[in-house]
Amino acid sequence: MIKFFIILLSIFCFSKEETFIIDSLSNKEDILKQLEELNKVPDFTLKSYDDKEYNMRSLEGKVVLLNFWATWCYPCRMEIPDLNKMHNEYGEDFIVLGISISDTKKQLIDFIKLYDVKYPLLYGASKDIDKITIDYGGIYAVPTSILINRKGEKVFEYPGAILEQTDRFDGVFSTLKKKITESLSAE
Known about the structure:
Blueprint: H1 2-13, H2 16-24, H3 28-39, E1 45-48, E2 53-55, E3 63-69, H4 74-89, E4 94-100, H5 105-114, E5 121-123, H6 126-135, E6 144-148, E7 154-159, H7 167-170, H8 172-185
Parallel strand pairs: 3-4, 4-5
Antiparallel strand pairs: 1-2, 1-5, 3-6, 6-7
């Protein structure tokens, strides 16, 4: 009798949409493809201060370090030389993207005149930046860095400045470099 009620309950619990999803994922390849999509970081498109467009999905195949920052943030400024070094060290399969949480294009252009930044600095409307920070789990502090592997999956996240000079105390810089190397060597 209990089996009957469980079967009856399961029939009524599946909506037409859920049944469609189950039917459309009837083979293993479709299921694996859907699971891969679930593991990917959210997509977004932002422009850099020099009007180039960057889209997360188009960067798949590269290892990406997203660095959420702001021009007014002193620890963010301290990271720039180390991020420049990483950006140049790993070649074309690695890119650092600095995502400003609050600056305009003009503010970034003015900032570039004072600071030697070798990687793209991105900006967007407040509502777009807010959506990205929420989609990426809530960015509550700047700087915050997120490393994304070639498949578009988050493999490392750190809220705070990642500095080579403090690595002997916290080990974050060497951990990030190890994760970058692992992500670059994985196919």
